[in-house]
Amino acid sequence: MSRFFYTLTLHALLPWALLHLVWRARRQPEYLRHWGERFGVFRAVPPAPTFWIHAVSVGETRAAQPLVQALRQRYPHHRILLTHMTPTGRATAEALFGDAVERVYLPYDLSWAVRRFLAHFRPEIGIVMETELWPNLVAACHDSDIPLLLVNARLSEKSARRYARWPRLTRETLQGLAAIASQGEADAERLRALGAPQVEVFGNLKFDVTPPAHLPDFRALIGDRPVFVCASTREGEEALILDAWASKVGASGTALLVIVPRHPQRFDEVARLIESRGLTLQRRSDGQPVAAKTQVWLGDSMGELFAYYAAADIAFVGGSLLDYGCQNLIEPCAVGTPVLIGPSTFNFAEAAQGALDAGAARQVGNAGELIENALALLNDAPTRQRMSAAGRAFAARHRGATEKTLALIARYMPTPS
How far apart are the first and last CA of the chain? Predict the structure, then answer.
């Protein structure tokens, strides 16, 4: 497919895109806000030198945290503009950075819309997190002499096969980028095979993410009970976990199951799942200490994932029990919490294998094995201590991607006149 036919296809799909926004708004009304931004219409902003970082959703926004902090320190007179595609990504940026950054939606990849976006904000450098390849956006940056860098790039085999269906368009897009820095060598090889002219390997920025300075003390709310946290769970996983927990622990167990869904629009849905199993539910949002009779604590809050991990004796990282590819398992390792993951890890393949090899994590095949392993570890303090130390060492050993990324950005900074 050439870029011309790609653009025609996007225009033909616009009615569907608008209907999709309305459909998503049934569960997340925020999708109905800021529509104009998706077509390149923005409020006026004062002129200022600008770093633009595109972080499509929650995971990419969290990964950008150390880079945003480092850029603010090194270039205090620059504005930082974060763009997103989802309301949850935007909300995550607000929770992490407050008013320290500008936040807008990135327009759809229509030539006229992305040109309006670039003309409005006039960024000195564009930085795309992970793997968001938008052909018209890349071409518009090239035409406007705006260096566009793809950083923290990852590309699973599944995604590489999808991009390979359009070899000409993918190759043209990759070659239009000013630079690419990947998380690992396997990602780099897949990008090179698709036509990327040069890929540097910097490691994963997520290893440089640090817990917030003032974490809520969930242990003070929970007390001395054993705690098993299932974090960043995805649709379909909670039901499997709850069924396995109910069958193996029942009403007599003292351990507390904590479930933190990945997407906030599913908080109420998961609450109903818990109650439908006859389990005693309490929600984080009530702000009360966890009652002794509570069997499941629902983590219905934003921006507190590190606090849940820090309070856990064992943590399961969601998106891995079903075929979602796994969420970020680096965060529990960084705070020394032993990790359990399911069979699906393609989004974090290298980090997952590294954590398994280091002894910081264990892999299970299904929900039954997950609960069996969790209960065994809750009764095995020496093994938990070894896994905790291994996790901290594993996370510390892989830090440093932020400094390498800053050096890459410095190469493309405009020369002062």
Answer: 41
